[in-house]
Design a protein that fits this description.
single chain; 305 residues; alpha/beta; Metallo-beta-lactamase, Chain A; 7-stranded mixed β-sheet; 5-stranded mixed β-sheet; 9 helices; 12 strands; 22% strand
Length: 305
């Protein structure tokens, strides 16, 4: 009887361990790594890590791009970084105000990292941080333990260049988009861009009530001018600029063009939604879940202009 009980306890222990999030760094170019998150919704299995983040190893420390959605995920990001380098994490860049971009800040702050974001991200974080945390706690339960909104230490307006350990790392803010504070991390020497939520690949992008598709497209077009060879998107697999255009830029243009024409012609909301053909993007994950809300919110944005 005792043996069976011990076996059951051990089974549960190993099951729990197997279900714990384990991140594996994907090397993009030497010294530059990405973590590729799930393309689905936030779940207890993925611990809310349904987005991409990454890090840059320099001779004088590590720069992390996005701290993850929770204290525990941030700790796991750090564990995975330590499998690659012994350099300490010096800087964390938040590329936006979505939970998976910044709610892991508390962990990195506790180990002495400086946290940086574009200035417009702060108001978004302050406005939505409590709501984001409540949502994560409902989804993650105990796995949200220790997570609190911790804001960046300093902000940049349009651009800042970090010089660390021989690396030149540009932080660029264009116009925002998916969230008001969306920014990118540009490595011009390596021709690698961490796009944050300005680029979605493999999954349909989500238009949010507090974002702006017109700002998003303007930011995307500014990003295009950089001509990145390799993009680590906010969601989906590492891609090139052509893929980013197909999965993000073309979709934004479709939504804006159709809904602006509908508003200009006085077409009602439901008719505008029904006449919008989004099937060219039906292969993307979450298409059925997000297409209707995207169409509706873009119509309302065009109506308000």
């Amino acid at each position: 009887m005792i043996v069976r009980w011990l076996a059951a306890v051990c089974c549960l222990f190993y099951l729990g361990a197997a279900q714990a999030l384990a991140l594996k760094p994907q090397e993009i170019v030497p010294g530059v790594y990405a973590f590729i998150g799930d393309t689905g919704m936030r779940t207890i299995e993925n611990e809310g890590m349904n987005a991409n983040s990454g890090f840059i190893v320099t001779d004088n420390g590590v720069v992390v791009i996005d701290s993850g959605p929770s204290w525990l995920v941030a700790k796991e990001i750090h564990r995975a970084i330590k499998t690659v380098t012994r350099q300490p994490v010096k800087i964390v860049v938040n590329t936006g105000g979505q939970d998976h971009r910044w709610l892991g800040n508390g962990y990195f702050k506790s180990i002495g990292a400086e946290i940086i974001a574009a200035r417009p991200a702060l108001a978004d974080m302050q406005a939505r941080g409590g709501m984001q945390l409540d949502g994560l706690r409902q989804t993650l339960g105990k796995k949200a333990a220790g997570t609190q909104p911790v804001y960046p230490d300093r902000f940049f307006d349009q651009t800042e260049t970090l010089h660390l350990g021989g690396q030149e790392i540009q932080l660029l803010y264009f116009h925002g988009g998916h969230t008001p504070g969306d920014s990118v991390v540009w490595l011009s020497r390596q021709n690698v861009l961490f796009s944050g939520d300005l680029v979605f690949a493999d999954r349909l992008l989500g238009v949010l009530p507090f974002g702006s598709v017109t700002d998003w497209l303007a930011s995307f077009e500014a990003m295009e001018k950089l001509g990145p060879k390799t993009i680590v998107p906010g969601h989906g697999q590492v891609c090139d600029l052509a893929r980013a255009r197909r999965d993000t830029g073309d979709y934004l243009r479709l939504l804006i063009t159709h809904m602006k024409q509908a508003v200009d012609k006085g077409i009602a909301l439901q008719e505008a939604i029904d006449s919008l053909d989004q099937n060219a993007f039906s292969h993307l994950s979450n298409f059925e879940l997000l297409k209707g809300g995207n169409a509706s919110r873009v119509y309302l944005e065009m109506e308000s202009q």
